[in-house]
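Example 3.2
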Amino acid sequence: MKIEIANLGVIQKAEIDLKPLTVFIGGNGTGKTWTAYTLASILGEYGCERYWQAYLDKKTQYRYPIIDNAIEEFLQEGTVRINLIEFAEEFIETYINDVSSLAHSWMNKFLATERVDFEKMKVSFDLAEAKPEILDNLKKDFIDQQLSFGTQSKDTLHILKELGDSKIYLYILSVSEENILKKLPRRAFEQILLKLIFRTIHRFLHLETYIFPTERTGILPFFSSATKIENYLDIENFDDIDENVKNLSSIKLSIPVQDLKLTLESIYIKTSSEREKEIQLYPEVLEYLKLAEILENDILGGKVNVENSSFDQEIIYQPSENIKLEIAVSSSMVKELAPLVLCLRYFALPNELLIIDEPEVNLHPAAQVQIIEFLAMLVQAGLKVLITTHSSYIVDHLANLIKASKYENKESIKEKFCLDRTDAFIPQEKVSVYLFEDGTAKNILHEDGRIDWGTFGEVSEYIAHVFL
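Structure, written as tokens:
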């Protein structure tokens, strides 16, 4: 998936080829995180939500006859079938570029800033090479949802897409004497249908996009019911907390932070039966559960669990059989990586995109080497990963993993690597590495597998020669 970006903060112009594993490196303030978050806003649910609302209000550049005719047919007949392959082949690139054309209007809210002008920002996508994978993703997707119309009505809108089928079906299951289509305003149904249809189309690109911002280490402790807010506030009398809580709640959070907060909250309500159903549909989920265990056992050195206790449900860290700790008093590395453990265990599905801002935060250099092996394993298991990093350990070892993938006898060299796993060896065609500097992003992954990371080497050279 090739992307052109212009006028995004310090980025004047950049061309990026988004691969299954994409790495952004560079100095502070060079545009890495803004670029990653901008792509997340477009490819994720946030951009989709704003697009279908704009389409409903006729504020998009393009209209799609397939969708408009389908809505009209549904309003007349109460049932419709949409051929998603036909839509994707003709309109998918037009669609995502139309979504991205609106991004300038939401970036201030997405990044929680009022002091930046995004009006001239432009992001465009070239999906020529990605289209075969997109069409394949479409066939692998499964949707089975029901939407009821309030307590008074027993009518239900059913949305169904079977595995391997290229069509999505929408129909009303009516048990009332008067069809709900005649009772609700036309705009209400248009709103419902557009939301469902565009969400389905958006999933062609990535089923879901999860963002792990650098703030993740500070968010997780607040999701233990045993960890009350008074533990974090220096207040003698908790009865006088109202004004302090008001001050805390007034802090503006970026959308990536809000989304992670909502994801962690939803862990408490997701049932095991829901995850079992996902396993039946997507066998890859079993691999994600195993990967969560590898992350715990081989990197964290303990378990991250959602546990029922005397404090009700809470997220705890268990470094040994007889010790259980609240996340708030666990190590910074646990706070750093626990959200990834939980995402893999409860939510991850194949073809989803994980965007991790500086995965090396709070990690010892040995753990930084382990984490890039682990991220490569996620990609080999069918997830997509985009990271920003300042870690020379991550970048250098990624070059080792690429080189290892070219060995014919991979088993003979796996003991040289931290996790002792050949599935950490990642082919070069699945990787892209970009250096952000001087208002652009430069591809620094050479054809021979070398990664030219001068941004780190210059600092190392300086330190080594201070007193020489």
